[in-house]
Specification:
Elements lengths: L2 E5 L5 E5 L4 H10 L7 E4 L5 H13 L2 E5 L4 E5 L10 H4 L9 H8 L1 E5 L12 H9 L2 E6 L2 E6 L6 E3 L5 H12 L3 E6 L5 H12 L3 E3 L5 E6 L7 E3 L4 H13 L3 E5 L3 H11 L7 E3 L4 E4 L16 E3 L11 H9 L3 E6 L10 H6 L3 E6 L2 E6 L7 E3 L3 H12 L4 E5 L1 H5 L5 H6 L4 E5 L1
Parallel strand pairs: 2-14, 3-13, 9-10, 17-18, 21-22
Antiparallel strand pairs: 1-22, 1-23, 3-5, 4-5, 6-8, 7-8, 10-12, 11-12, 14-16, 15-16, 18-20, 19-20
Helix pairs in contact: 1-2, 1-7, 4-6, 5-6, 6-7, 8-10, 8-12, 10-12
Length: about 425
Amino acid sequence: MGRFIVKGGIPLRGVHRSPGNKNAALPMIAAAMLSEEPVTLEDLPDISDVSVMLEMAVRLGASVERDRASRSAVICARNIRRVSLPADLARKIRTSALFAAPLLARCGAVSMPHPGGDGIGRRRLDAHFRGFAAMGAKLVSAGATYRLKTGGLRGADITLAEPSVTGTENLLTAAAATPGRTVIYNAACEPHVQNLCEMLTAMGAHIEGAGTNRITVEGAERLRGCTARVRPDAVESASYIAAALATGGEITLENVDTPSFAILENAFRKFGVRWQIDEDAHTLHLPRQKLRTKYEFGDAIPCVSDGPWPMFPSDLVSVLIVLATQTRGTCLFFEKMFESRMYFVDHLAGMGAKIVPCDPHRVVVTGPTALQGATVASPDIRAGMALIIAALCARGRTEICNAESIDRGYEDVAANLAALGADISRVG
């Protein structure tokens, strides 16, 4: 098991390039399986989750030519050899479920185990199965393995019980290869869902409403190959911003998804954060600054809460909790989406943070606090990055176990942080 060894107390300074968006790249790899022609994906992040998805595509019968130097991959699914997802890979990653759409559309069947991923709470598949049922697929087995079959998908009107991101992506992908009209109500509208819509449009589907909660898809009998670029990862960018702020540093970010920061700025403002964005150059400059919570109307303690886009993303709650430990004042965090996301705060409390857990969804943080180095374990991708940020601003040495969980979502984090001046190394 890998570990990060961090000696804190060094302000981060320098330039960091944000990679392509993990949450866009994974559904785009699955969607590439819709076409018999080559699909080229550009600016793929070099993370383990991408490697798992590409290996699954190969196991299903696609050819994959990956060029890590150029951050690209060419996927050609001219032939699909199997409709059963390889269990050893599927259980590693939640987005393995996204291969259901191309397999149903092209082969009429799919067999898959319950997908893996982070243990941040219950993550239902109801939206996927009910949507596929509306399109003409039948769930014939729901034990340890899910099996779906169809004599042919058809367009349908689908209302999701919740704006599930992977549910929306699976149904979008299926609808793109289904002749007729499909309308998805209460759809997810995150930037990575929009990125998938751009790719499916380039492949020949006609899509309206991307970025809204009502998406209409006119599918095509045959989708062509295309070249699609993965948008920059705003969550990764914001994580490095939080790291620089917590350590009292200043950085410039390149390859930034600048429209997303109009949304993210609302939460960072609660800590008095300011930055400068160059939209033409897609860069963001974060100057060194003192942090202080901004009270809300009526002198109320500020609250950071998450929700479906365009609300603040759940993936950034963990890193902002760490930032709050280094900010003068008090802040309430309300994690509404996942009941296990907050469990990592026990590690922060052990490092000396002034944190009061109210219930599984809410914590109150008071800062600034001088954190102390400790030995901790990363429970999931985002909490793992949050613990790295805590280690960067802590006194002494911190050892973060289960480094592999962080590798799933962040490119070569030790090398990238070391390039900004951090004293961090990877062991194992």
